[in-house]
Amino acid sequence: MTDYSRRAVLLMGSAAVLAGCTAVPRGAPHRREVLAGADDFEPGEAPPFTLVEVRRETLPELRNWPMTGFRPPTGWPAAGNGPTAPRIQPGDVLDLRIWDSETVSLFTADGERAIAMPGLRVSPSGHIFVPYIDEVHVAGLTTDTARRRIQEQLEAVISSVQVQLVLASGLRNSVDMVSGVANPGNFRFEEMNTSILGMISAAGGVPEGLPNPYVTLMRGGQVYGISLSEIYGNPARDIALRGRDRVIIESDKRHFIALGAAGSQQVVRFDQQEISALKAVSIMGGIDDARADPRGLLILRRYDRGQYGNPGQPATERVIFSFNLTNADGLFSADEFQIHSGDVVLATQAVATSTERVLRLFGSTLGFGARVSDIGGSSN
């Protein structure tokens, strides 16, 4: 068989294989294969999915579409300092010691100079009972201010009296470190303005084996959330805790699925508050420059019932977002498009890659080079 004949056989065989369903192994589908069937539906039926080309023009509308997948609490309180000393609150327990230098005292027995009155619980109305002066309102005061108030009222009865006051305990001046630390429990403020990182440290820190820690803060009927890495990276996020705060630290449950002609194919957990499509490509090892189609980055997303079919919402339950990473608009748009938990990020395979594999297959079979340039070479 002449070289010309061999080239003809190769061209005809290659065309036949490329025209049909080839058995050439590959790690990802082509873009056109994934999008096939977009128009395959009967009149009156909803299309099987919606294809959205993500560009500068479409981004504003897409930002208003509903969030999908698992959604942890978001938002974070603004940084700000409170009082530097704990404030006495209803339910707190105070230890009171009264000193009296008088020989005959209303408080102390013979030979004693002080009497201890531990375990004085602040009433719901904010008072404690002290003998001879009845109830004293202490809620909202620092321990030093409350001590002076009690002493001033006692001095009207015993001029030489002195008062010592200690805030022993109280839920309203403590924080619950619920989970995600080495030593969870209730931690009382030694002083106010204790930051969340300071309290995490007091609780033994976050175990190294906890992947992508996410912090949930429950405060006054509100629930806030942020990734721990963002607190580490931004001092303004290291806010001062308040009494009765509850802190829960657990692994961020959000994830996306990386598939196709990329550096890795796996379930990828979120490692920060927001992940763009471009960041997702980077996390999954980039698209394979030898196999991937940079015009065919696809993100597959499913919307819940009630999140599609209405004005300002996706038209269908299933939506495929398409990105062209070969131009500036596509790259910028991918960097502004946010990944949702549960998204599938698919790097499709370039058609030219499959073509080259077919040519190599036939070239190997016929015993000559597999390069495309060989086909167009001159005959002898």
What does this structure look like?
This protein is of the alpha+beta class. The chain folds into 4 domains: 1-25 and 355-380; 31-69 and 255-349, Outer membrane lipoprotein wza domain like (Outer membrane lipoprotein wza fold like); 93-169, wza like fold, CATH 3.30.1950.10; 173-251, Outer membrane lipoprotein wza domain like (Outer membrane lipoprotein wza fold like), CATH 3.10.560. Helix content is 23%, strand content 26%. The protein has helices at residues 3-19, 31-35, 59-63, 143-155, 196-202, 228-233, 277-283, 328-336, 351-366, 372-375, and strands spanning 50-53, 93-99, 114-121, 127-130, 134-137, 162-169, 174-179, 185-188, 213-219, 222-227, 246-251, 255-260, 266-269, 292-302, 318-323, 344-349. α1 crosses α9. The model is unreliable at 368-380 (pLDDT under 50).
CATH topology of the largest domain: Outer membrane lipoprotein wza fold like
The percent range for strand residues is 25-35%
Please tell me how large the radius of gyration is.
Answer: 35 Å
Kindly report the oligomeric state of this protein.
single chain
CATH top level label of the largest domain: Alpha Beta
Number of strands: 16
Distance between the termini: 12 Å
The largest pleated sheet is described as: 6 strands, mixed
Large-scale geometry: elongated
Second-tier CATH architecture of the largest domain: Roll
Number of helices, counting only DSSP H or I runs of 4 residues or more: 10
CATH superfamily of the largest domain: Outer membrane lipoprotein wza domain like
- Mean pLDDT across all residues, rounded? 83
What would you call the structural class?
alpha+beta
Strands of the largest sheet, in order across it? 1-15-14-16-12-13
Percent helix, as a range, is: 10-25%
SSE run: HHEHEEEEHEEEHEEHEEEHEEHEHH
